Amino acid sequence: MSIPPAESRYESLTVDDEGFVQLRWPAGAKITGPSAKDAFDEVNRICAGTRRPMLVDMATTKSVAREARSVFGEPCAASRIALLGRSPVDRVIANFTLGVSQVPCPTRFFTDRDKALAFLREGPHDGTV
């Protein structure tokens, strides 16, 4: 697999103290199919067979390609996904992505980090993939 251009790669991907996966896209990211696949492959790798809630910071994402939306519809180690944005544009991008893709787990958009984390805490996690 080829390495996505720097502008489309995720900025960071970690597991926090609560066991939540935290994926951050850089400001102005153009999320391509290969960059989405790269991110989800890494999510699966760091989760090592355990399903975990995932917070995706997509604030100021510039675009999400059709191929990326397809990847986001594939099952991965995420048990629930909270999409975190800041602006009405972020909401439009998230709603469009969710509206045209079948998501494999409960997924919602938030502009408030605390509400996003509360949503992640509501559902089951730490199950086996």
Describe the structure.
The chain has 129 residues and is α/β, with parallel strands linked by helices. The chain has a single domain (6-122), classed as Rossmann fold (3-Layer(aba) Sandwich), CATH 3.40.50.10600. The protein is 35% helix and 22% strand. The chain has four helices and seven strands. The strands form two sheets. The protein has a five-stranded mixed beta sheet, with helices on both faces. A hairpin with a 5-residue loop joins strand 1 (12-15) and strand 2. Helix 1 (33-47) packs parallel to helix 2 (66-72). The longest helix has 15 residues, at 33-47. The two termini are 24 Å apart.
Strand segment count = 7
Structural class: alpha/beta
Query: Which topology does CATH recognise?
Result: Rossmann fold
Q: Name the overall outline.
A: globular
**CATH homologous superfamily classification:** SpoIIaa-like domains
Fraction of residues in β-strands = 15-25%
Proper CATH architecture: 3-Layer(aba) Sandwich
Tell me the strand order in the biggest sheet: 1-2-4-6-7
Quickly count the domains: 1
Secondary-structure element string: EEEHEEHEHEH
